[in-house]
Amino acid sequence: YPEGGLVAGGLSQTPTYLTSTNKEEVQNEVKKQIQVFKDNNVDLMICEYYEHVEEAEWHVDAVKKFMPGVPVCASLCINEDSDVHGTPTGECGVRLARAGADVVGINCHYDPFRCLEAVKKMITAVREAGFDKVHFMIQPLAFMTPDASVQGFIDLPEFPFALEPRICTRFEMAKFARMSYDAGIHFIGGCCGFEPYHIRAISEELSKERGDYLPYGVINWGKCLEIHTKPWVRTRATRSYWENLNPGTGRPYSASLSKPDNWGVTAGHELVKQHKRTKQPSWSLKNSELSRQNCSFDLEEIELLERLLIGVADLRTQNLDSANLLLFLKRARKGYLNCAQESLQRRSKKLK
Q: Tell me, what's the pLDDT at 241?
């Protein structure tokens, strides 16, 4: 590789921030990770995947304090509008630069072109704020997400096991790479969903900018098809063909967009707080409580309860307070299964 190789250490958002939103607690947590990277003399640090710019600022600040002189990259997993607390994307970029980040940008949660629009807003705001030496980065998903909401592809119903129909083609990646570079983004990579051929497409598109370096296995816009046995396939050995292709899904009447869950759960909410485990589980629903000592379920009852919980979970698509419903289900399922486990253990002992 003409650029040579670098080793980066990585930090990401923490459950500590979601639970406490306390700067000292968060920085004490990340110090443990920073120490490992410091001891091993990494070339740079990447603070990435933050839904809240505030936590990213705290992490950048911690790295600057405990690893002085090491370049720091900082990227958020937010869209072109704002972070999940509503801080505008451009302002997020400025705050990262002010915190001391040498490179700022976007990674994950959204497709290449939405991430690109977000970084463009950062570029404008950061330059207007007078940070002329800050560089920019972009590491998007390899999935198309025009319908993703504030929490990105995590809110899509296909997440995480049925996202393949949304995968970007190598030609879309080449287009994304060129657009990103021309926009002034020179730290270009990928996140979830990226395959080797995606990275190869980026490298191939920017080969001239990288000293005419070409990675192994390039297809040169399908030039290899010039010797294909089928004449109609040979006509596809051109850049214009692949650049203008509108690929089909292969699924008749398939939906082009999905409906995101839009739960809106974020820092400070009960659902994302960490809780210490206790030996005696306790849960209650208003005035009615489940006594563990009096539980005695057989297998059919357990299966029935599981189906009941699943059925109630489906109600979250109705006009209900879904966050509180999920919390109820979480506690209820834990209580039911604890009871069921003890019941089975007691019966097992009796059989022995």
A: 94
